[in-house]
Amino acid sequence: MTAIVRLALQHAAFRWGRTCIVIACVAVAVALPIASRLVANSFETSLTARASQAPIVVGAEGSRFDLLFSSLYFRLGGVSPVRQGVYDDLLATSGVLPIPIHAEFSARDAPIVGTSIEYFERRGFTLSEGRLPVRLGEAVVGSAAADRLGLRPGDAIRNEPRRLYDITTTTAVELNIVGVLAATESPDDAAIFIDIDTAWVLEGLSHGHDDAQSIDDPEQVLGRDDDFVALSGAVVPYQRIDDSNAASFHTHGDPADLPLTAILIYPETAKDATIVRTRLNSDPLLLAIEPVKVVEELIGFLVRIRTLIDAVAVLLAGAVLVLIGLVAFLTARTRHDELRMLGEIGVARTSVAGLLAADFTAVMLIGAIVGVGCGFAVWQLAVAALGVSG
Amino acid sequence: MSVRDLRIQLGTGADRFTLGVPSIDIAPQQHTVIVGPSGCGKTTLLRTVIGILDAPAGTLTVGGQNVLSMSDSQRRRWRLEHVGVVFQSFALLDYLSGIENVLLPSRLLGRCDADLRKRAHELAERAGIASVIRRRPHKLSQGERQRVAICRALLLAPSVVVCDEPTGNLDAARSTGVMDLILDESHRTAATVIVATHDAGVIDRAEQVIDVSQFSATNAEAAASAAS
After folding, report:
1. Are the beta carbons of A82 and A98 closer than 8 angstroms?
2. Cβ of A16 under 8 Å from any chain B Cβ?
3. Partner-chain residue, chosen from B80, B87, B100, that has the shortest CB–CB distance to A346
4. Three-state SS for B180?
5. For residue A14, what is the nearest residue in chain B, using CA coordinates?
6. Strand partners, B208
7. Chain B: nearest CA to A344, how far in angstroms?
8. Which residues 6+ apart lie within 8 Å of B155 measured at CB?
9. Cβ–Cβ < 8 Å for B36, B55
């Protein structure tokens, strides 16, 4: 039997073109359903795990999916802002822990996320280097972002202004990197975290500049009395925050109107959750979502897509089977003389049949193995490309 | 080898061909040539003698064994172990090298040991194809391919060597060389040689000549037209 198998393999190797085509066809038919299932499962697992980390998310009225992706995946510019006043009200409410999220800016394609120290505690972050940001202008970097951007404590990075060539908007602010987070296999790895007050500096709603009393340039002073100095827009705010100027940073206007992208809410009990959700949903300007339920909706779409992919895979497998049947038929036809000769020199019928079967089985087996390998490779690539945990 | 009242039938209906062979005796180690015009049944007789074709009537004894009473699998096994066959079309496997083709029967019998490998190389040396024996058939000349096929037939030192037009594709000089190889090796291994041929040079060297045209052959189509 070994001789027959070896003979079959030699034939398969000699007819490498035919063999490669069949292997490729089988591999595709095997890889497609494996890859689609693995990717879908990873996507589901990743989405569900991420969603379960935040029981309730509140934002401005709009799309629940946009709010989910802005607040948990830091997709920039997807939602209208929610007022800081909502956060203040929640902070004053017993039984809930609100965490502000400001995700409107990026630095070299890494989202900059303004939040509070509670976010780091809730997520259970650990530092691989440095410390957490405690002062204005400080930032801590996720592991993947640190690797990609080559950032370490002591480095600095500037945010990308909203409109690069609009000189009336706030210019880029330099952020001082003070720490690098350990990997968490989540979207946090790709982000740069700053204090929520620093986020408002990026917005231009908080700023620091030279002491107004000491400015004499008439171009920069609109008016002055004993207590106040009205400065013009010609005063250039600080673009770097350090010990010498940190104290000069201040916010104009009502702090309750400062913008947030979303607020993550951690109720202490189910009752607290119900109360706060009901209260928030009664405000027509707000949207409170339970991320797990929104993700279940998304997974529903995903299951439908997966069913479609499975149907395509079945059709493909059918087409491949027909092709393989055709190849097997043509192979048997083209090998007719060879098989007859083997019979005439005395090879048993079972061995002749075994020769064809071994050739066919070897090619199918290799195709299946390649298909499984490709399926897993595509899965890994997709997981890396989509940024979901495998 | 002994043949008695053998009736061989091929095909059905209008294509049916029947050959009646009353008696043939071939002594051990004898060199016998089967001759006759094209289509008279030389190849058919040869293939029946080694059990490739079945015969509905008569007896066929080779080395004391009644070939016709064997089952198909028994005949195949007997052929693989005791008969060396040289086909007119060489019948080499194009995906094996020359030496692998020579060793094929031994591989299929699970007896491809060092001794047989050595014998295969010795045969190739004697056949004058040692330098090209690692090439695949499509890189060999007609004569080289024929000699590879002969080496394959002789490898297991069979008791019967059957050759169907072994020199049909060769010129006179090569034809002589090929027959020298077959007869020398067969003599060395005490094998009986049966050759179907038109080649006068091959016929001249035979110890026995059987003319198949003397046997009764019936072509159904011809018989039908004669009757009408």
Report:
1. no
2. no
3. B80
4. helix
5. B95
6. B32
7. 6
8. B84, B102, B103, B105, B106, B116, B119, B120, B123
9. no
Find where tokens 């010990």 sit. Answer: A243
**For the segment A289-332, what is each residue's pLDDT rounded down to a tens digit?**
999 999 998 888 878 887 888 888 888 888 888 887 887 788 78
Are B83 and A346 within 8 A, CB to CB?
yes
Contact by Cβ (8 Å): A249, A201? yes
Q: Which pTM does this prediction carry? A: 0.66
> Could you give the CA distance from residue A38 to residue B151 in angstroms, rounded to a whole number?
56
- CA-angle at B10, arms to B4 and B11, nearest 5°: 160
pLDDT-derived band at A218, boundaries 50, 70, 90 = confident
Contacts of A341 in chain B (CB under 8 A): 87, 91, 93
Dihedral, CA of residue A347, residue A351, residue A353 and residue A357, to nearest 10: -140
- Contact list, B47 vs chain A (CB under 8 Å): 344
Contact yes or no for B46/B162 (Cβ under 8 A)? yes
Interchain contact B70–A (C-beta under 8 A): no
In contact, A26 and A374? CB cutoff 8 Å: no
Model pLDDT for residues A117-128, shown as the tens digit of each residue: 999 999 899 999
**ipTM of this predicted complex?**
0.83
- Separation between Cα atoms, residue B147 and residue B162, nearest integer Å: 14
